[in-house]
């Protein structure tokens, strides 16, 4: 929050207009599959410099929502704004994502996998090296990605998402298979991105992990956004698990 002292300059309306736009704003986002609504009227607001934890039971509609944010699925209704502008492919240059598990070139090494992406993105090799370092995969040499453990594949997917220093990082279940070192590295990466003014959206079932990283929470149940607000508003006593069960069972009652 920006504050000014009593001796400092007063904030003018122009200053207020200079506030950065929301990183993501959806309005009435909905999606049906063969007539069955799985995302209903979801209006998400992801702010710059914040981590947004998207929670909800299996099948609630989290991945479907994230895919619509990224243009991987067309909404049945509603709209998506990225960085204050209507969704466009150009805006996706500022976005890194890992959705529904890693999709890797199994016959290539970690470094080669990243270089495929840096080539496509028009980035230098140094970006691939830095991403390898950020996720702790520099020592994997020529080993092919298909021989990696689940956690190593997860690290490589994260490295791919980090290429090009995205202003928005979207991670679907990024902790899957990560060891404690991997989870610690992930936390650090997330906090680094937001302290640089970027935004992170992370969907996860691991409530303790979300409690560690999320500034804001969105709770989706049965396709509807039941709650959206700060982590403190979601769980005033800090007990995210209890708040989650209370809020989801209220819905079921
Ligand atoms: N391509 C598809 N065709 C038909 N139904 C789909 C399709 N994709 C998702 N669904 C259905 O939409 C609903 C929401 O799925 P989604 O993957 O978004 O949930 P989720 O909250 O991400 O779940 P999980 O936590 O288990 O990953 C589910 O009932 C799922 O079966």
UniProtKB/TrEMBL annotation:
Q: Does the keyword Transmembrane helix apply?
A: no
Q: Which residues form the ABC transporter domain?
A: 24-247
Q: Which family does it belong to?
A: Belongs to the ABC transporter superfamily.
Give an example GO molecular function: ATP binding
Keyword terms of this UniProt record: ATP-binding, Nucleotide-binding, Transport
Protein's UniProt keywords contain RNA-binding = no
Among InterPro entries, the record links this protein to: AAA+_ATPase, ABC_transporter-like_ATP-bd, P-loop_NTPase
PANTHER family, from UniProt? ABC TRANSPORTER, ATP-BINDING PROTEIN
According to UniProt, the name of this protein is: ATP-binding cassette domain-containing protein
Q: Which organism is it from?
A: Quadrisphaera setariae
In this chain, the stretch annotated as Disordered covers 1-23
């Amino acid at each position: 929050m920006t504050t000014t002292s009593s001796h400092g300059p007063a904030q003018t309306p122009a200053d207020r207009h200079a506030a950065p736009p929301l990183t993501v704003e959806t309005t009435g986002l909905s999606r049906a599959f063969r007539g069955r609504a799985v995302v209903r009227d979801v209006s998400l607001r992801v702010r710059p410099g914040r981590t947004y934890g998207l929670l909800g039971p299996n099948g609630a509609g989290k991945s479907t929502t994230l895919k619509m944010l990224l243009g991987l699925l067309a909404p049945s209704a509603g709209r998506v704004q990225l960085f204050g502008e209507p969704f466009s492919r150009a805006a996706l240059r500022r976005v890194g994502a890992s959705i529904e598990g890693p999709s890797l070139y199994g016959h290539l090494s970690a470094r080669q996998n990243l270089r495929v992406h840096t080539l496509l993105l028009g980035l230098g090799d140094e970006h691939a090296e830095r991403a390898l370092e950020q996720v702790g995969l520099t020592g994997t040499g020529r080993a092919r990605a298909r021989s990696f453990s689940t956690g190593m594949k997860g690290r490589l997917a994260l490295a791919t998402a980090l290429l090009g220093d995205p202003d928005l990082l979207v991670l679907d279940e990024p902790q899957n298979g990560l060891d404690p070192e991997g989870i610690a590295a992930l936390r650090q990466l997330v906090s680094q991105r937001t302290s640089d003014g970027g935004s992170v959206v992370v969907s996860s079932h691991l409530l303790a992990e979300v409690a560690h990283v999320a500034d804001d929470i969105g709770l989706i149940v049965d396709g509807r956004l039941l709650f959206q607000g700060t982590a403190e508003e979601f769980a005033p006593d800090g007990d995210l698990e209890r708040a989650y069960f209370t809020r989801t069972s209220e819905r079921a009652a």
